[in-house]
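Chapter summary example: a protein plus zinc ion.
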Amino acid sequence: MNLVNCDQCKKNFPIQPKEKKHGQGIKETYFVCTHCKTRYTAYVTDQEVRRMQRQIQKLEKESLFTKDNNKRLVLYSKVNRLKEEVLKRMNELKEQVSKR
Ligand SMILES: [Zn+2]
């Protein structure tokens, strides 16, 4: 099992991810310390993030099967750009959710 150390009580606890819906397609994945009940947000996604993640998977698959090196490079740079956007948006969403 995956153990993490709690920032609050300094004890180790197993990660058991839970999901919470925040409306407007926003889904938060979080886990709670089993000792002191401190809540940790793992990540937050919305429809746009999930759309980009599907796009990334599609492009990565495409780049695996292409024999054209130039095309592969183009696909790689698209994937990297999308990944950056996903990270940025997930950080924004995380901030939004933590303010509620
Ligand atoms: Zn704790």
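Key point: The pocket of zinc ion is lined by residues 6, 8-9, 11, 33, 35-36, 38 (CB under 6 Å).
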